[in-house]
Amino acid sequence: MIQYYSSRDSSRYLVSFEDALLKGLAPDGGLYLPDSIPKIDPQSWKTSHSLADLGKKVLHAWLKDEIPQAALNSIVEDALNFPCPLVKLSDDLWVLELFHGPTLSFKDFGARTMARLMQYFLKKRQEQRIILVATSGDTGSAVADGFAGQDNIEVVLLYPKGKVSKVQERQLIVSRPGVRSFAVEGNFDDCQRMVKEAFLDPDLSHLPLSSANSINIGRLLPQSLYYLWAITQLMPQAPAPVRGVTQDDYPVNICVPSGNLGNLTGGILAALSGQKVNRFIAAHNANHFFPDYLQAEVQAFDFHKTIATVSNAMDVGSPSNFERLYHLLADDVLKSWIWGTSIDDQSTFKRIKKSYEAFGYVACPHTAVGLEGVVRYRQATGDTSPVISLACAHPAKFPEAITHALNIETPKEEALELLWQKDTNVISLEPELESLKRQL
Asked: How far apart are CA 324 and CA 265, in angstroms?
């Protein structure tokens, strides 16, 4: 059975996936890591006919000692019931569209699966949980939607007031059963700090708190699935000279628009479980700690204050999952396997325009950061290997940015239009733990 240990002490706090999922953080404040990673034969998943079909096979390898296959099948089918297409832009560049779920961002994969996994274990235990989550944009709405109405679960959602797009904020504050939203008078780092402090505060130890951010291992395992699904879709589209090459040998790079580094960690877990990835490209916005670290310009954990950008869901100055990556991989492996770059808003807008002109493709600001990262990586390294770049959110969530970059009206999306017809519920909160404690 795979057990999970704290990133701060590998010899302590060995727990099951069930406990790691429901606790969120280890008692010492560390992030849970698996003590072993199952090696999954590509032959077992590359013939999958859907992401859900692939998910049943891959998650079974992780969870077979804790969840019966039939129960897992039901969870995955209900959670991952939307498409995840690989779109070809050129013979050496694809985008994996991760925004076809109910809240139109990649966070739906992890949040919906995690909610149903939690529900399974809580029903078995006859227990309840309060999900405490900090968000810089898309995480909160995905968690709110994925967990809303689930028995035995309530959600308390913190987001930085005035630092998310109008559409994102509307998604966060729409009234949902079992969900409370708080607009924090600060930045995302304040929200994340308050959540971490709440977990460790003795005064709150009587509350059944858990997390749904990417600090929770339960978010990362489902996110690893679409990396495998991307390769499954890629091979039939590969250019003629490399057709017939096995998936094990195909020299693909993957670009991940990055903030809190949870998405990238999911990709690393997929690669460690058996999918060959030549290189990961971590494309950050102006929040540049991780690229600086990869280039040996700063020391590990030498974080900086959050910088507000147009790709706001990635506005993270001190990424939580760096701690997980740092302990999962050796320093030299991190720096050789992952290439990073930092991209400012001006370059982001230019890439939105260039991608539209070159491919007719409308990219959200986060997706554009990834596409610009691909260009910079190739210029810096000369590596011409095919690249899959993750498309993180639907461009309709960022109409102001799209209009600014392209001078066109963003295509409408019905799910977003309906938001303005719904009731909202939100409370302002000072960026201090005591304010949050009073609400809890």
From this structure: 8
Give me the phi and psi of 256, to 5 degrees please: -120, 110
Q: Domain spanning 83-105+217-406: which CATH class is it, in words?
A: alpha beta
- Please give the backbone phi and psi of residue 213, each rounded to the nearest 5 degrees, phi first: -70, 175
| Tens of pLDDT, residues 294-345 | 999 999 999 999 898 999 889 999 999 999 999 999 999 999 999 999 999 9
Q: Rounded to 10 degrees, what is the CA torsion of 429, 172, 310, 216?
A: 90
Give Cβ neighbours of residue 367 (< 8 Å, ≥ 6 apart): 95, 257, 389, 390, 391, 392, 393, 395
Structure tokens at 58: 């891959």
* Whole-structure pTM value: 0.90
Geometric angle at alpha carbon 364, from 363 and 365, rounded to 5°: 115
Q: Is 110 left (phi over 0), alpha (psi -120 to 50) or beta?
A: alpha
**The dihedral formed by the CA atoms of 309, 224, 351 and 94, expressed in degrees to the nearest 10:** -170
CA distance 11 to 14: 7
How many CB atoms neighbour CB 29 within 10 A?
15
Query: What are the residue ranges spanned by the domains of the chain?
Result: 83-105+217-406
Residues 6+ apart with CB under 8 A from 86: 94, 95, 96, 97, 230, 233, 234, 237, 388
